[in-house]
Each structure stands twice: as structure tokens, then as C-alpha cells.
Predict the 3D structure of the following.
Amino acid sequence: EAVDVVHDGIVDIERLGATGSYGATIRENGTAFQYEIGNWDAADAWARESRRMVRSGPNAWRYHIATTVGLGVARDQPDISGRLDRFADLLDGQPVEGQYQGAYALAAAEHALWKRRPGEAIDTIDTSLALLSDHWFPYFLAQMHAMAVRALADLAELARAERIPADIVSEHFERIDGHVETKHVRETVEPTF
């Protein structure tokens, strides 16, 4: 349904002549929806279109990268390391916002996992969870705890394969349990404002 709304919105925006103001944003949102439901080719097409339309200024680029970086990591696009660095630069010194720090953390951790660096992925998630702890944004918090579980499982598997002492492997599993419990609690508790 969201994809249909984006399609209709693109038609309306173009008909009204508002592509300069809203053309990139609606395609960026569409990119995120298409990526999440597994339509990567369609997501990539909208990401490319939106990139040509992005207005100048750090906020526009922050939003563009936040909505397209996950796809770039998943597809291992050649410029993805540079885009992650640019994203980090755009976030540096800015107020904490879940939609940006959350998107960055998930993409950077995923990228680290694909590069077989689970320790780096865990560090990214831990740092981001600390940043976002006071900002209720359940979607990204739940996703980050799930990513931490994946990274810790990879780290535990590597530790077991390298014959690292059992107590260290057990610590990884204890941390997994902590992230699973926190994810469960965050998904069942209503935010208080």
C-alpha cells in the first residue's frame, strides 16, 4: 500500500510542478519502503532518481542518505564506504535524531558484518544505543538490538572456531540474552512523553 501511495504521490507532485520541493523526498521514502519489502531494483531506481533531485544543504543530504544507505550496504555498492563516512560527517555535532542515528548505526553495523568485522558492528551499535537511550524511537532501537544479536552471534561463532576459552564465548551469549530481553521489553512498553 505504501508503494502505491508513493507512485500516486509522484504523479501528483509532477502534475502540480512541485518536483523541486517534494520530488526527492517522496522518492526517498519510496526507496525505503521498496527496500524493506525486498524490491531492491525498484528501490535502486527511486534512489537514483532522488539523488539527481536532492536540494542543497546538509538536511536534504542527511535525509537522502538515511533513506538509501541500507540499500547501498545490502547491494555492496562500490561507493558505500564513502557514503557511510559522509553520513557520519553529516551527523557529527548535530542533535540526536533516531531516524538519522538509527539509520546510520544499522547501515554501518551491517556493513561491518558483511566485511567480517562483528566486533566493529557491536561497537557501532553500543555507541548508537547509548546516544539514542533518551530518545524513544522504537523501530530503530528494536532493529539495533536485533543487529547486536546478529553481531554477537557472529563473534561467538568466531570465538568458538578459534578455540577461545568458553567463558568468553559465554559472555557473548549473555550479551545476546540482554539484547533480546531489551528488544522484547521495548516492543511491549508504551512510550511516555
